[in-house]
Amino acid sequence: MARVDIVSEIAGKVWQIKVKSGDPVEQDDPVIILESMKMEIPVAAPAAGSIVEILVSEEELVSENQTLAVMETG
Q1: Which residues of 46-64 are buried (b: 16+ CB within 10 A; e: fewer)?
Q2: Predicted pLDDT of residue 45
Q3: CA 51 to CA 11: how far, in whole Å?
Q4: Mean pLDDT (whole number) for 43-67
Q5: Which 8-state DSSP code applies to residue 18?
Q6: Nearest-CA neighbor of 24 among 73, 64, 68?
Q7: Residues near 34 by Cβ (< 8 Å), separated by ≥ 6?
Q8: How far apart are CA 7 and CA 14, in angstroms?
């Protein structure tokens, strides 16, 4: 199994966390929803696998390229 970081593509605020540790996800499933410039931007799972750890909390400000969660694939 490979560990994969789920990374923010933009700076913004964590609006909603859609998964929890241990949850299975499919590729492109929304994991976290960010809010930036009054728009909702989903952060999707880059592959199928399971969530290992969520590294942010709702309402937290995040920066571009920040790791938001870690998942295992395979």
Answers
A1: bbebebbebebeeeeebee
A2: 97
A3: 22
A4: 98
A5: -
A6: 73
A7: 8, 10, 12, 13, 14, 15, 40, 41, 42, 43, 62
A8: 12
